[in-house]
Design goal:
Helix content is 44%, strand content 14%. The chain is an alpha/beta fold and 153 residues long.
Length: 153
């Protein structure tokens, strides 16, 4: 299988960087996430370094001067190691992130509706199916969603 890298160029994205990285990690398809910090003037560079320290699949490149989006993408493509390279931005707003997180709840509603329509509401594997749909973004370190489960929970 080909290696997939995801480039996330950032400039002063303190409030949106972590949700964007977590969203890419949650998909579980990227071999490496490259955060290209374009000389941010807030705490984005420190947060990017923390995210990289917390996950070996995240790497950060810091620009000493702002090179704009084109310069960040050029750096990202030059640094990428994967055969497939994708790009996303970190401008997911807090409200967009909250909407995205509702898909697990909506998935549960769909499963329950389908099982009810097929009169399978009492099948033994119903709980397992519901857990897969609801908990597929849990990381068991408290950083996942929707419940933020940790340890043996």
């Amino acid at each position: 299988m080909s290696q997939v890298d995801v480039i996330i160029p950032v400039y002063n994205e303190l409030s949106t960087l972590e949700p964007a990285v977590r969203a890419v990690l949650a998909v579980n398809e990227a071999d490496e996430i490259l955060i290209i910090d374009d000389a941010s003037t807030d705490s984005t560079p420190q947060l990017a370094d923390e995210l990289a320290a917390a996950d070996s699949n995240v790497r950060v490149v810091h620009h000493p001067v702002n090179r704009k989006l084109g310069g960040s993408l050029k750096t990202g493509f030059a640094e990428a190691r994967g055969e497939l390279v994708l790009y996303t931005d970190a401008t997911l707003s807090r409200s967009e992130w909250e909407i995205m997180k509702t898909h697990a709840e909506r998935g549960l509603e769909m499963v329950d509706s389908i099982l009810a329509d097929l009169e399978l509401i009492d099948v033994p594997d119903r709980t397992m199916l519901r857990n897969i749909v609801e908990l597929h973004h849990e990381k068991l370190d408290g950083s996942g969603y929707p419940r933020g489960l940790a340890g043996e929970q």
